[in-house]
């Protein structure tokens, strides 16, 4: 998965070698600066510009534009959950229309937003009522949740309304990997938690140590889902102390 804003900066093209899932980068746009965001009130580019760039790249998947419901974002902007859900609905309608108009072959991913399980249930129903349910649907605002039970309830709420779709959990905490009710329901997830608040040991360069943390985190996911068909090509030697050959 690549944040759309990362794609735009042009600093690193290594992601081009992978089957991409492009995310619009909502949290990084709207979160307060003290939490690493830009504190914006809306996306800096138009929805049409976003979809045009998606059409130029034609990734495997891309998420329709959404508006996150993390409590720090809502408090910073004085937004309500319902406001964020309505904004997400409006942008999804735009994205659905532009997807066909621009000849995009990438598979779209709608996003269910909320804060409490009941919020997700309501928004999933809203997307279904408007014909905006895609083959894979993302569950937003999962980042930073350390309550596994709540995450289980959120996944169950979405699954209740959308029983026949694949589910992607945005920013799922690694602690949720041990939850069968979650792992049995989701098809994919993403995370940057492995490189937050780390302390690099002496003798490691920054990129080497972050890469090691990534391998460890990805190995935990592989262990959770099991089966050789799920093993990532990056997961060579879990917990290795030398990364020779990965440069």
Helix amount: 40-55%
Number of strands: 7
Which strand order does the major sheet show? 1-2-3-4-5-6-7
Describe the largest sheet.
Answer: 7 strands, parallel
Strand content: 5-15%
Average pLDDT, rounded to a whole number, is: 87
Radius of gyration: 18 Å
Broad shape: globular
Q: Could you characterize the architecture of this molecule?
A:
The protein has 247 residues and is an alpha/beta fold. Strand 1, helix 1 and strand 2 form a beta-alpha-beta unit. Helix 6 runs parallel beside helix 7. The relative contact order is 0.09. The C terminus is likely disordered.
Provide the descriptors you would attach to this structure in a database record.
alpha/beta; 247 residues; 10% strand; 7-stranded parallel sheet; 9 helices; globular; disordered C terminus
Q: Summarize this, please?
A:
With 247 residues, this protein is of the alpha/beta class. It has helices at residues 4-9, 26-30, 47-57, 71-77, 81-101, 117-129, 148-161, 180-183, 206-225, and strands at residues 2-3, 21-23, 61-63, 107-112, 136-139, 166-169, 188-189. Strands 1-2-3-4-5-6-7 form a seven-stranded parallel beta sheet.
Produce the secondary structure layout.
Elements: E1 2-3, H1 4-9, E2 21-23, H2 26-30, H3 47-57, E3 61-63, H4 71-77, H5 81-101, E4 107-112, H6 117-129, E5 136-139, H7 148-161, E6 166-169, H8 180-183, E7 188-189, H9 206-225
Parallel strand pairs: 1-2, 2-3, 3-4, 4-5, 5-6, 6-7
Helix pairs in contact: 3-5, 5-6, 6-7
């Amino acid at each position: 998965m690549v944040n759309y804003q990362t794609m735009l900066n042009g600093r690193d093209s290594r992601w081009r070698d992978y089957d991409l899932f492009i995310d619009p980068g909502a949290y990084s746009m709207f979160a307060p600066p003290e939490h690493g965001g830009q504190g914006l009130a809306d996306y800096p580019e138009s929805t049409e510009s976003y979809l045009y760039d998606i059409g130029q790249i034609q990734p495997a998947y891309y998420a329709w534009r959404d508006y996150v419901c993390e409590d720090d974002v809502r408090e910073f902007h004085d937004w309500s959950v319902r406001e964020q859900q309505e904004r997400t609905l409006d942008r999804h309608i735009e994205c659905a229309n532009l997807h066909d108009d621009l000849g995009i072959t990438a598979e779209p991913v709608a996003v269910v937003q909320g804060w409490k399980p009941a919020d997700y249930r309501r928004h999933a129903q809203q997307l279904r009522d408007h014909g905006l349910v895609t083959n894979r649907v993302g569950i937003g605002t999962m980042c930073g949740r350390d309550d596994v039970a709540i995450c289980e309830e959120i996944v169950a709420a979405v699954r209740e309304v959308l029983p026949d779709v694949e589910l992607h959990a945005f920013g799922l905490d690694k602690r949720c990997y041990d939850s069968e009710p979650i792992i049995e329901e989701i098809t994919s997830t993403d995370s940057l938690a492995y490189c937050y608040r780390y302390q690099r040991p002496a003798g490691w360069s920054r990129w080497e140590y972050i890469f090691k943390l990534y391998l460890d985190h990805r190995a935990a996911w592989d262990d959770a889902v099991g089966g050789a068909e799920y093993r990532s090509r990056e997961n060579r030697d879990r917990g290795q102390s030398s990364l020779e050959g990965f440069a």
